[in-house]
Write a structure and sequence with these properties.
With about 650 residues, this protein is of the alpha+beta class. Helices cover about 30% and strands about 20% of the residues.
């Protein structure tokens, strides 16, 4: 059976900073590939694509995994003739959505202004371009500025354009550049008429073209011009455009076939495989192959080239919950390589990654890579050497505090001193405390796998520290100051402050490693079930005082309306599955079936909130399959009645 046709890359792309339906991009990209492509319709901060726009400023080579983080290494390509503009804003053209194909393996769109049909298919570190102009007007392929400073040069002998950009948003990246090589085939480049405009941030180049039909091949590198050429030649070779597209299509089909479902209806089928596409986009490969075929990577920590693999474009606060547990079922080899890549950041710079774009980003709190490492260790993924180095990094950030907020645990030493992170020392102190207790459980888990029983015993002592913040009078986790006092005038609907992207309602149950202990605090299993019933039945009201303004997650919780269960955001993901863990699977089934049916659809408005690099997509996939990893790091699945008729994972019936 063919699955690619069920993928709608538009799912979640009708987003706005104030209302996310996914904040996704319709990426044409190889699975986990280093080069992604999509239309740039109009730049509004980092929101540069909207599904309903019938105009575009060009095709963008992008690495953006979230508009909240931004892009790096971006180039904007636009066919032009007549009045040739030097910016996307000046070069924009109408497009017909009915004539536009945006697929994982293939893009096709017609720019009305230049009467040019552009086709693109990806390779792992580049792609192939085919352009067909409607008439013989003198035409150009322009490379327009997006982010950072640009340089360009042309080699007429090889008909190759070379470019660089140092652009990267938010992340720390020492001496960073993306190199691009674009080779034009069959005499398509007219080097004599090619010209550059501007310099630095305004630099662009207009490559003059011969003929109405033009093809080019693209390679990129974070290391050098020569490596970009090597990627182009190795990945494209002498293959035709159609052969390259067939190769990309087969790569996607192989990934999508890893889970085969008998869906209950067409909507579920399309939603499922659109989500599965998202699962295989991130994290991105950020390593290359040298002349001997060995993996090497640019290190953003010191700007040097290091041996080994590297992966990026991932925030572990999001992805540990669903994406990596799903990978244990469908992408074990890839998971092992990713883990080696994450650990290489520790080897390169002394800190395990927390959230990476090109380099480290101060985006989300805590060191939830702990859970990704524990999940791998518990499931036999990763070599002993990699896990040993990973544990070393986990122990370091559990006891040391970085001066750079991009790295480590904020409040690590306070957690060890007080048994919680004080609210008068750190924002989001409740979440930090819970995350550190769980993180130390993950450390104990990895240590146990490695036979380091003394380390495991030591870190298990911290795993119940979350109990220090439980307020039995309200049934919520609440922050304490350094004197052990909770704030007066408690309001469980106030977002922010002591909590991360939520209120006490969403953030008082984040102890996946000890649900029984949480139930005991509440007075037993039935009492905790009653509290969760109350959560789902309480109106989705919110107070903005912790932020001082409304954030989009508040809006989405209220609009989707499952009470205080904010399916739009990660802190609520596990809530319906606690019912099953406490012996009430019928409640899990009821809420999960409603959530998957009512909050997801294979449309541009298809996600209930930010999709976040496969996280929400993986939540949907696991939920309709009737399984959920309540605690990554435990080799246990919560099982309940699936909503698909049947399913096979890697050919095995589940």
């Amino acid at each position: 059976m063919e699955y690619l046709s069920y993928v709608n890359t538009q799912m979640g792309t009708a987003s706005h900073p104030r209302r996310s339906f996914g904040n996704t991009l319709p990426l044409t990209q190889m699975p986990f590939g280093m080069a992604s492509f999509c239309l740039q319709t109009e730049v509004k901060r980092a929101w540069f694509y909207h599904a309903h726009h019938e105009f575009a400023e060009g095709i963008r080579l992008t690495h953006q995994f979230s508009p909240w983080v931004g892009d790096y290494g971006a180039f904007l390509m636009m066919p032009q003739n007549d009045c040739v503009a030097s910016t996307g804003e000046g070069a924009w053209s109408g497009i017909r959505k009915s004539e536009t194909e945006e697929k994982p393996d293939y893009f096709k769109g017609r720019f009305l202004r230049s009467d040019c049909t552009v086709e693109l298919t990806p390779t792992e570190r580049g792609g192939a371009l085919r352009m067909t102009f409607g008439d013989a007007r003198p035409s150009y392929l322009s490379f327009l500025p997006v982010l950072g400073n640009y340089t360009y040069r042309v080699d007429a002998d090889t008909a190759t354009l070379y470019g660089t950009t140092d652009g990267h948003a938010l992340s720390a990246a020492e001496n960073f550049k993306t190199y691009i090589a674009v080779r034009f085939l069959d005499g398509a480049m007219d080097a004599e008429r090619t010209y550059t405009q501007g310099e630095g941030a305004s630099a662009c180049i207009h490559v003059a073209l011969h003929g109405r039909k033009v093809e080019a091949r693209i390679g990129i590198s974070y290391i050098s011009e020569a490596m970009a050429v090597a990627a182009l030649e190795r990945e494209c070779g002498a293959l035709s455009f159609d052969e390259l597209r067939a190769r990309a299509a087969e790569s996607w089909e192989e990934k999508l076939r890893r889970i085969e479902i008998d869906a209950k209806d067409e909507k579920q089928m399309r939603t499922f495989y659109s989500c599965l596409y998202r699962v295989f986009l991130f994290p991105h490969k950020a390593y290359e192959l040298d002349e001997n075929g060995n993996a090497v990577h640019y290190s953003p920590i010191d700007g040097k080239v290091k041996s080994g693999v590297r992966y990026t474009d991932n925030c572990f606060w999001d992805t540990y919950r669903t994406l990596y547990p799903l990978f244990t079922l469908i992408a074990r080899e890839e998971y092992a390589e990713m883990l080696a890549g994450f650990v290489s950041d520790y080897a390169d710079g002394g800190w395990l990654p927390r959230c990476n774009s090109m380099g480290a980003v101060d985006c989300m709190p805590s060191t939830l890579i702990d859970a990704v490492i524990a999940e791998a260790a518990a499931n036999g993924i990763g070599s002993k050497d990699v896990l040993e180095t990973a544990l070393e990094g986990m122990l370091y950030h559990a006891t040391q505090t970085s001066e750079d907020p991009r790295y480590g645990r904020s409040g690590a030493k306070s957690f060890l001193k007080y048994g919680y992170v004080p609210r008068n020392e750190h924002r989001e102190s409740v979440n930090l405390t819970q995350d550190f207790a769980y993180g130390d459980w993950c450390i104990a888990t990895v240590a146990e796998v490695l036979g380091k029983h003394d380390v495991a015993e030591e870190y298990r002592k911290h795993t119940s520290y979350y109990q220090n913040l439980f307020d039995p009078s309200t049934g919520f986790m609440r922050g304490k100051d350094t004197d052990g006092n909770m704030a007066e005038n408690f309001d469980p609907f106030v977002w922010g402050g002591e909590y991360t992207e939520g209120s006490a309602w969403q953030n008082s149950f984040a102890v996946p490693h000890d649900i029984e202990g949480l139930a005991t605090l509440h007075g037993g299993r039935e009492a905790l079930i009653a509290k969760l019933d109350e959560l789902f039945s309480t109106a989705p009201q919110y107070r903005v005082m912790g932020y001082g303004f409304e954030i989009h997650e508040m809006t989405e919780m209220a609009l989707v309306d499952f009470g205080q269960m904010a399916i739009s955001n990660q802190p609520s993901f596990h809530l319906p599955f606690i019912f099953a863990a406490l012996g009430a699977p019928e409640k899990t089934e009821y809420w999960v079936h409603r959530l998957t049916e009512e909050a997801f659809a294979p449309t541009p408005e298809g996600y209930p909130g930010d999709e976040d690099t496969g996280t929400t997509a993986a939540w949907y996939i696991l939920s309709v399959l009737g399984m959920y990893r309540l605690c990554p790091g435990k080799k246990e699945w919560i099982r309940f009645k699936p909503s698909v008729k049947s399913a096979k994972i890697l050919g095995n019936q589940i």
